[in-house]
Amino acid sequence: MVQITVHKYDLLCKNEKYGSSCEEMEAHAAAHICKNYKVPFLGIRIISNTEIHNEDFDPAAGTSCQQYVLEVVRSYAKNKGIRTDA
After folding, report:
1. pLDDT tens-digit profile of 52-70?
2. Contact by Cβ (8 Å): 21, 15
């Protein structure tokens, strides 16, 4: 018999309905404020919810995410003519 928690069931339903691979709650308030003030917003997160596939969390994913975010910020700054060599 497979036992499933309500939270896991909710994640699976959202995955099936929307094709999402995670849930994101922490940046929602910042995104909402940016939307209200017409300020561009991009949230980049490391995925740590592993309930769907029962995977172990890989700490190296944090380093990879940091490197990716740095590349995104540098690219954005370059496209906007902002110096990043402070």
Report:
1. 667 777 788 888 889 999 9
2. yes
